[in-house]
Every structure is written in structure tokens, then in C-alpha cells.
Design goal:
The protein has about 475 residues and is mainly beta. The chain has three domains: about 280 residues, Sandwich (Jelly Rolls), CATH 2.60.120.200; about 90 residues, Immunoglobulin-like (Sandwich); about 80 residues, Immunoglobulin-like (Sandwich), CATH 2.60.40.2550. Helix content is about 0%, strand content about 55%. Strands 1, 2, 3, 6, 7, 9, 15, 18, 19, 20 and 22 form an eleven-stranded antiparallel β-sheet that branches. Strands 4, 5, 8, 10, 11, 12, 13, 14 and 21 form a nine-stranded antiparallel β-sheet that branches. Strands 23, 24, 25, 26, 27, 28 and 29 form a seven-stranded antiparallel β-sheet that branches. It is elongated.
């Protein structure tokens, strides 16, 4: 089984030792297969990985990292690689079914750090049963929650950062954080829902000093022994005006070496076992002073006739592979509609543009997702463009003398039909088949046989006729 592993290496000189700063990308590439009982482990460097791909190697420690899955013994849980049907991540995703006991995915024995980060993508399927838990910390040699089978115990000194999601009967998902060694605190500052893709990023500082970083050209500070949470590019408040989440039961100045994600079924809630997709785990044993390889100084989205014109400028770029342009009609579920190559490394302004010729009617939300060479993605805040809910219209955009006509049609509904060009005397000069989507459409018509003059253009389709005039 092939696995994409990308490492970013650097060295930070500390007062008593040298720590190799490393970032690992652990996706599931095109893995396949499923497990329904038992457990499976794969160590970094394994020539023939088991169910899971091999994790990355530690830069200075001879102890390998271990990726592990554990399933309920009664066959109620399942791990399955899925590469179709959902938009989350890329390639294969890991679909986890929570059983009557923990269905746990974990990576442990990561080279230790006092300040580090873990990010991943998750999508919860609808249910009213069970719960999902993410934790980042360190095995204590007793409970060993990250490498063992059990759920988090009531009193837990292995967790620095803990997140918990509990599905509700109304379709919402309650969100909790681990505030100490035993308490889950409700967080109402961010609303989670089923069937929505979420990019989770947790930045942890278990040192006795604050740690600074920059995101979206804004500087942030993590207090000592605290952590920050970001969801889909939005920072989550711990409480009103406070973004420092109190750490769990793990003692201060303890190295962070392990993380997990697991689900478990609650038989009293529902007969539907909880399911979630996960993908694109990125983790690092340091926090970069600037988390973004790109400094974005402007991003605009404007209505330009029937199209949306997007423009953005960067002041600097480091290892910038590309930008994906994503669109949404509800501001929650985004779809990639295009991309632009990045400049790689640059210290001068770089200007980018993209035109969406087929926006949806109503409000369209556009956002940029930047990818660097190690696979890490950064999501920027969306911009909105309102195309209203007006009636159908037709407009020829091409310049006089062009051999082709660019015809913009805004349709109230999808249909198939014919596009015609007539002389002002009513003679049919052009006829071609046309398929329209609801909303904005851009069609190309051969105009090489048209002489200078005034023409009538018309679309005649199922249930709608749209006409206009143009000058050649």
C-alpha cells in the first residue's frame, strides 16, 4: 500500500538541546479495504504496511511512529476506506463506524514537543447516537489511552487538548472541550451539523511561556498551557472574547507525542450507529511563527455582468503550490470550481484573477484555499456576490468583428433547445443546439459568416424563449 508522506524539516536551537522541527502529512492516498474486528498497527518504515498506511519517521528518535485502529470486539464497528460519494479531502477517506465500544484511530510515539499542532478534516453522518472524541497529549504508561483500547477515563491525565461532538435529535451536533482532567465543557461558539465538511486545526502550547503565530495576516498569541481551535478558517472562542482553551489533565511542560480520534455508540439513543469520515491529518512538533506560506493582502469578488470576477494579491509567498477557488450557495458547503498556480517563492506582489461565468442565482460565496508543497491547506474567509433572483436575460458580449460570439444567458430554469441568429429581415443565419443550466450560462456561436450589421439572437427551449439584439 502506497502512502504519501511529506516532511518539512528545520532545526530550532534551544538552550540545552536541538529539536528537529518536523511537519508530517498523513492522508490515506488511494488506500482500500475494510476492518470489522480486532486492531491493526503500522509503524513508520514498514515495508509492507497493514491496513493503515505507514506514518512518517521521527527525525532524531529511533522509536518509530505508530498508526493504529481498534474496533469493538462484537463486530458492531468498522473502518473502511472510501474514495467516492463525499467531497471530503482527496483520494481515499477513512469511514469510521462507532461500535458498542471505541472505534479508535490514533498516531502515537511522535517526537515530543511542548508546542505543536494537529489538523484534520471530518464529516459527521446524521445520527442521534453516540459521540466522537479527538484528543492530543501523551500516554502516561498506565492508561495508555492513545495506544490502547479503552475510551478516555473519567479522570484523565493524558489529555492536553480534547474535543467532543455529540449528535442531537434535531440534526445539530453539540460541541464540547476538555477543560481539566475530568470535565467536558459545552461550547456554543461554533455550530456543527451533519453532512458538512469541517477542517479542524488545534494549536497547542504546553510550555510555561506564550507562543505567537500569524494567520490571515493577523498575529495571535497562545497563552502558556493553553490551546487554540480553528474550524474552516474561523477561530473558535473558548468564551466570549477569549480564545485560549484551558488544557486538560496533562501536566504542564509535558511533551506532546500522541493523538487520537474515536467514535462510540450509545444504545439508549438510537439504533443508528454513528459514522464519520476523516482525512488529511497534518501534525507538527512545533508551531511556526507564521503558519501561512502566503501573505494575502487583498481578495475581492465582484459582479461583472452575468459573471463574478475574483481578484487577489499576495505580498509574499513561500512554497505556494496553488490556489483552489471554491463556491457555495449557503456559505457552508463549498465546491471547487477552478484553480490558479501559485508563484512558489516570492517576495514581491503577485496578482491573481478568476472569472466565474456560471454563478448560481442568488448569493454566491467564494473562497480561496491555498495549498503549499507539503500538502497543507489554508482556507481564507469567503466573499459574497449577489446575483438576485431576476428573470431570464440574454446578452452578446463579443466585440464587433470577432469570429465568435460569446453569448451570456441567464435562465430561470434548466432546459434544452436551439440558439438562433436572424437578420433584421427575419432570415435564419445560424442554428445550433444549446443546453442551459439554471442561472448563468456562457455559450459560443460561430460568427464567421456574419457581415457587419444588426442581428437578432434567440434561444427557444423547453418552456422558455429568450431574445436579444446585437451589432456585428
Amino acid at each position: 500500500m502506497m502512502k504519501k508522506l511529506l516532511l518539512t524539516l528545520g532545526f530550532a536551537c534551544l538552550s540545552v538541546y536541538i529539536q528537529a522541527q518536523t511537519a508530517w502529512n498523513y492522508d490515506f492516498a488511494n488506500a482500500s479495504g475494510s476492518l470489522t474486528t480486532g486492531s491493526s498497527t503500522t509503524n513508520s518504515g514498514d515495508a509492507s504496511p497493514a491496513f493503515l498506511p505507514a506514518p512518517g519517521a521521527n527525525p532524531t528518535s529511533s522509536t518509530p511512529q505508530t498508526a493504529r485502529v481498534r474496533l469493538a470486539s462484537d463486530g458492531t464497528s468498522k473502518f473502511e476506506f472510501v474514495n467516492s460519494g463525499v467531497t471530503l479531502g482527496s483520494g481515499s477517506r477513512l469511514l469510521i463506524t462507532g461500535g458498542t465500544s471505541t472505534s479508535k484511530f490514533s498516531i502515537y510515539n511522535i517526537e515530543g514537543t511542548l508546542s505543536g499542532s494537529v489538523s484534520f478534516k471530518v464529516r459527521f453522518k446524521p445520527t442521534t447516537s453516540g459521540q466522537w472524541i479527538f484528543a492530543y497529549g501523551k500516554n502516561n504508561g498506565v492508561n495508555n489511552t492513545y495506544s490502547g483500547n479503552a475510551a478516555l477515563p473519567t479522570t484523565e491525565n493524558e489529555v492536553f487538548a480534547g474535543l467532543r461532538w455529540v449528535p442531537q435529535s434535531d440534526g445539530s451536533i453539540k460541541f464540547y472541550t476538555r477543560a481539566d482532567g475530568s470535565t467536558w465543557s459545552t461550547n456554543n461558539k461554533f455550530t456543527f451539523e451533519a453532512d458538512v465538511d469541517y477542517a479542524i486545526e488545534v494549536l497547542c502550547n504546553n510550555s510555561s511561556s506564550s507562543v505567537n503565530y500569524t494567520k490571515n495576516s493577523t498575529s495571535y498569541t497562545i497563552a502558556a498551557n493553553a490551546y487554540h481551535v480553528w474550524v474552516n478558517g474561523t477561530q473558535v472562542e473558548a468564551s466570549t472574547g477569549n480564545y485560549d482553551f484551558a488544557h486538560g489533565g496533562l501536566a504542564g511542560n509535558t511533551l506532546l507525542t500522541d493523538f487520537l480520534f474515536y467514535g462510540v455508540y450509545s444504545s439508549s439513543a438510537s439504533t443508528i450507529f454513528p459514522q464519520a469520515y476523516v482525512d488529511d491529518f497534518n501534525y507538527a512538533n512545533y508551531i511556526e511563527p507564521n503558519l501561512l506560506p502566503v501573505t494575502l493582502v487583498s481578495f475581492t469578488a465582484q459582479k461583472q455582468g452575468p459573471a463574478a470576477q475574483l481578484s487577489w494579491t499576495t505580498a509574499s509567498e513561500q512554497n505556494n503550490l496553488r490556489f483552489d477557488i471554491e463556491r457555495s450557495t449557503d456559505g457552508k458547503i463549498f465546491t471547487v470550481i477552478g484553480s490558479r498556480d501559485g508563484a512558489g517563492n516570492s517576495t514581491v506582489d503577485q496578482h491573481y484573477a478568476y472569472t466565474d461565468y456560471q454563478p448560481e442565482q442568488g448569493v454566491n460565496y467564494y473562497r480561496l484555499v491555498q495549498y503549499d508543497y507539503n500538502g497543507k491547506a489554508t482556507v481564507f474567509d469567503p466573499k459574497a456576490v449577489d446575483f438576485g433572483i431576476g428573470g431570464s436575460s440574454l446578452k452578446v458580449l463579443s466585440s464587433p468583428g470577432s469570429s465568435e460570439l460569446q453569448v451570456s444567458i441567464s435562465a430561470e430554469k434548466a432546459s434544452s433547445g436551439k440558439l438562433y441568429v436572424y437578420s433584421v429581415q427575419g432570415k435564419k443565419l445560424v442554428e445550433q443546439t444549446a443546453l442551459l443550466n439554471k442561472g448563468a450560462n456562457m455559450l459560443t456561436v460561430d460568427a464567421s459568416g456574419l457581415q457587419p450589421g444588426i442581428y437578432v439572437i434567440a434561444y427557444n427551449g423547453t418552456g422558455q424563449v429568450i431574445t436579444g439584439k446585437f451589432v456585428r
